[in-house]
Amino acid sequence: MFKALVMEQNDEGLAQASIKDIGEDALPEGNVTVAVEYSTVNYKDGLCLSAKGGGLVRNYPHVPGIDYAGTVEASEDDRYKPGDKIVLTGWRVGEVSWGGYAQKARISADKLVPLPEGLTTRQAMAVGTAGFTAMLAVMALEDHGLKPGQGPVLVTGAAGGVGSVATAILANLGYEVAAVTGRPDQADYLKGLGATTIVAREELNETTKRPLEAETWAGCVDAVGGDMLARVLGQMKYGASVSAVGLAGGAGLPATVIPFLLRGVNLLGIDSVMQPYDNRVRAWQRIANDLPMDKLEAMITPATLSDLPGLGGDILKGGVKGRVVVDVNA
């Protein structure tokens, strides 16, 4: 028996969370059983923890948690053996299948990544899907020509999970980082991660009739979308790229094609859920090499399984700073 945060529907069809003892026979099918050590809280986790499952959860009872890291307990796949450390992100785990808000998980070996040398399972979950996505975004910008010294790189939603990690990575790599936030009280936090400039959200969250503005940004990691992304596209330098990773400000894009046609701007879509194995390994190795662990530690808020229902609501309201690390055994 092991403990898990289980979502169950009441008579009104609304999901409620409780911590329960369940047996291994309840775990989903898979060829690797993992003793989970840590998980985390992402925006999708907040949706899955909500009363209606955010439109992501299809069946109840359900164990949320789209990320986890731990130790292989049993394996029927030659790639993993008991004692190996692993990390799991994506593949719709925690949404359509049971996730990491439990002391044990079962999964297909194809969906796992070996924990890179130099990272602990706790650090891996301080990174989680948010940090993994941030690294993919930075890699995409670099693959499209971004180099230090070309000008400031904008990070929108900078105090959130993706933005915090992106800011720390970019600063560590030698980029000048302009961090956008709607929370002025987070300025010191963002500067501590390496941001050189704080940009008030109000400066960018309104559309303009001008399709192009002054060439300002050498690159951008955008977690907001909507009006802000449309505005930023018109401020990019010639040939610069924007990595689009989120839609906190909306799924619409009230923009024109002018930045693409006259400045050769690139809009790069970043998906972390279905990334191929080789690119996952590449990203996690870059995280181990390029994310300063002292900066990562500064982002962490510790939590336990019992804290998750409240944290789920908080992250949906934009009330979570940095990264939450959930000790599932505490």
Task: Explain this structure.
It holds the Pfam family ADH_zinc_N. Residues 13-326 form the Enoyl reductase (ER) domain. This is Oxidoreductase. The protein is α/β, with parallel strands linked by helices and 330 residues long. It has two domains: 2-115 and 292-327, Quinone Oxidoreductase, Chain A, domain 1 (Alpha-Beta Complex); 129-269, Rossmann fold, CATH 3.40.50. 28% of the residues lie in helices and 26% in strands. It has nine helices and 15 strands. Strands 3, 4, 5, 6, 7, 14 and 15 form a seven-stranded mixed sheet that branches. Strands 10-9-8-11-12-13 form a six-stranded parallel sheet, with helices on both faces. Strand 9 (177-181), helix 4 and strand 10 (197-200) form a beta-alpha-beta unit. Helix 2 crosses helix 3 (161-172) and helix 2 (121-143) packs across helix 7 (277-290). The longest helix is centred in the middle third of the chain and has 23 residues, at 121-143. It is globular and about 60 Å long. It starts with a strand and ends with a strand. The relative contact order is 0.16. The mean pLDDT is 96.
Note the main attributes of this structure.
330 residues, alpha/beta, Quinone Oxidoreductase, Chain A, domain 1, Rossmann fold, 7-stranded mixed sheet, 6-stranded parallel sheet, 9 helices, 15 strands, 28% helix
Helices and strands, with pairings:
Blueprint: E1 2-9, E2 15-22, E3 32-40, H1 43-48, E4 67-75, E5 85-89, E6 104-107, E7 113-114, H2 121-143, E8 153-155, H3 161-172, E9 177-181, H4 187-193, E10 197-200, E11 217-222, H5 226-233, E12 236-244, H6 258-262, E13 266-269, H7 277-290, H8 293-299, E14 300-303, H9 308-316, E15 323-327
Parallel strand pairs: 8-9, 8-11, 9-10, 11-12, 12-13, 14-15
Antiparallel strand pairs: 1-2, 3-4, 3-6, 3-15, 4-5, 5-7
